[in-house]
Amino acid sequence: MMAFGFGSYRLVKVCVRGICSAVGGEDTVFVHGCTLSVGAGPDRRGVLITGTSGAGKTKLVAGLLRHREFPVAVLNDDWGVISLRSGHAVSTGEGMLHMKTASVLALRPGFYASAPEGSYSADLSEPDQTARMLVAPHSVYGTAWSTAAAVVDHVAVVVREPADWLPPGGPGETVKALENEGAAGLARHHEMFFNGSLILTTEEDKLREERRYRQLLDRTTVSWINNCDTPQSLTGDFISTVIRPE
């Protein structure tokens, strides 16, 4: 794909994600978030961490990577594809990731002192060229970056809501919360539902994506992780809810 006349690299990425969803088969869904492989051996499983921009996905992943109690591998950053038939998620194979500089520094403190020459460059399409960068995955995630496949059996939705906020009740309510456009609260922001399909414009497009997401949620366990406290609490909530549920 070649694109001309875009004011920002972000717009190119959005269009690529939308095109992938538009031409993808009915048995695949393109998701916005980070796909992890957690654990090792027979206990190894895939987890999708999703949520709106600013909810705390990067903060959560950074906290998990600092835990040494269990192996964590990052299969995709920002977006990727999941098979609805088998549940498999695989790396997109990107040679460079488009990331916020703040996210890079959260994931890899001391990045500028340790990153090899040529492993990153500023995003020259942005007015603030220090805000985002193109960066090699291994420079950010190190050995935690993986191209291996994993079967996703859990979806963790990160939100930033008041401490007394209650998540949706059943599967039907979850889909409604993810797709609701314009309602109050980050949990109901339309970006979470559109995910990899941010340029969809017709009702038919939306219904197709809704079917895909219903299939994804039907075959996985869904947990809502509220980022309303400290980074340590966010990581602890994920571990107790997703990795070591009682």
Protein model, in words:
With 246 residues, this protein is α+β, with helices and mostly antiparallel strands. The protein is 33% helix and 23% strand. It has nine helices and ten strands. The protein has helices at 9-23, 57-65, 101-107, 111-114, 137-141, 171-179, 191-194, 203-218, 231-243; strands spanning 28-38, 45-51, 72-76, 79-83, 88-89, 97-100, 120-122, 132-135, 150-159, 221-226. The strands form two sheets. Strands 1, 2, 3, 4, 5, 9 and 10 form a seven-stranded mixed sheet that branches. A three-stranded antiparallel sheet has the order 6-8-7. The longest helix has 16 residues, at 203-218. The termini are far apart.
Gist of the model:
The chain is an alpha+beta fold. It is 33% helix and 23% strand.
Shape: globular
How many helices does DSSP assign?
9
Described by strand count, sense and barrel closure, the largest sheet is:
7 strands, mixed
Helix content: 25-40%
Q: What is the terminal-to-terminal distance?
A: 47 Å
Uncertain runs are: 181-190
